[in-house]
Amino acid sequence: MPPARRRSHPRPQDAPNEAARLADRLQQAGFTKRDIARIIDRDPSLVSQFYTKNKGAAFVTALREVLTAVEAGGITDLPDLATIAARHTRRRTTASGARARVRAKAVLITPTGTGTGRAGTQAIASGSTRLRPLIAEAARHGLRLAFTVRLAKTGYLHPSGSRTDSPGIRRAVIQRADHTEERSYGSAQTGGFDAADFARRVDAAGGDVTAAVHQWLVETGRIHPDAHILHLEIRTWRPR
């Protein structure tokens, strides 16, 4: 007689942790993972790691207080909720009690003002937040800025090479085999854009660089409102 099959039960570690459960309730209340990240002043990827890597224990108290403010107090404004969360959020400390260092990629801008930052598909989905420090630093130094975007050809309102879109016959345009197209806006030759202006746009978009660039492209009549940016590159330099 074959041995009886053992019934499998979910392992404790397979169940969502407390931070993930609180994040779920906030999402049920209408907030996105990106909203939650802004509330606790962290990158959206950390919120995803509540579910995939069992992280978030340090934010449980803050998330509980935020959830109480939402459910009992009816507070929905992100800055107000961020203020509440900040009262209950502490950075990690070392054994000696000093504040732990957080790993981060340095923003490199040369003495001539040259700097470059790129965001691919995964970073685009989280708002290209890695590009925000580059734009902020460029604004602080009074630099000029240009950017390149890639999206489906059908997302653009004007044909490639149109002087209404990017000056010159197919200049600053790269067509790809997957029916997407890269177009560059601004250059040292044309003067580019004021980095401070784009920094303000990014701040107005809550730090979402993708949304800020997308809004500019829509406002200036270059892309359809429902077009999706697939790749983004920011370049900076010092004006002459």
**Overall pLDDT confidence:** 83
Helical stretch tally: 9
Q: What's the β-strand tally?
A: 6
Structural class: alpha+beta
Structural summary, described in words:
- This protein has 240 residues and is α+β, with helices and mostly antiparallel strands.
- Strands 1, 2, 3, 4, 5 and 6 form a 6-stranded antiparallel sheet that branches.
- A hairpin with a 4-residue loop joins strand 3 and strand 4.
- Helix 1 packs parallel to helix 4, helix 2 packs across helix 3 and helix 4 crosses helix 5.
- The protein is elongated, with a radius of gyration of 22 Å.
- About 3% of the residues have low confidence.
In short:
The chain is an alpha+beta fold. The protein is built from nine helices and six strands, in the order αααααβααββββααβ.
Structural descriptors:
240 residues, alpha+beta, 6-stranded antiparallel β-sheet, 35% helix, 13% strand
Could you give the topology of this structure?
Layout (H helix, E strand, L loop, with lengths): L17 H11 L4 H7 L4 H9 L7 H12 L6 H9 L28 E5 L1 H5 L6 H9 L3 E9 L20 E3 L4 E6 L7 E2 H10 L4 H11 L11 E7 L3
Antiparallel strand pairs: 1-6, 2-4, 2-5, 2-6, 3-4
Helix pairs in contact: 1-4, 2-3, 4-5, 7-8, 8-9
